[in-house]
Amino acid sequence: MTTAALPAPPVYRYTQRRAGAVIYVGPEPPTPDPGTSCTRMEWAEWGGTWSPPEIVF
Q1: Per-residue burial over 24-43, b = 16 or more CB atoms within 10 Å of its CB, e = otherwise
Q2: Three-state DSSP state, 51
Q3: How many whole angstroms separate alpha carbon 10 and alpha carbon 34?
Q4: What span, in angstroms and rounded, lies between the C-alpha atoms of 54 and 43?
Q5: CA 25 to CA 31: how far, in whole Å?
Q6: What pLDDT is attached to residue 45?
Q7: Cα separation of 56 and 53, whole Å?
Q8: Which residue from 31, 39, 34, 35 is spatially nearest to 56, judged by alpha carbons?
Q9: pLDDT score at 48
Q10: pTM of structure
Q11: Which of 41, 48, 32, 37 minimizes the C-alpha distance to 13?
Q12: Which residues of the chain carry a pLDDT beneath 50?
């Protein structure tokens, strides 16, 4: 019996900003705080690049 390997979960980089200044960059989603915004980019393994940022909050 052969089992197929499951695809790896996506790798994200989250960036949280307050008044345009970066206050967090990391792999886990930050806690929403008043006056902050957050975007995330997904690592495109096949291309070796980050995707365009998408708004999280």
Answers
A1: beeeeebeeeeeeebebbeb
A2: coil
A3: 28
A4: 13
A5: 12
A6: 78
A7: 9
A8: 39
A9: 86
A10: 0.81
A11: 41
A12: none
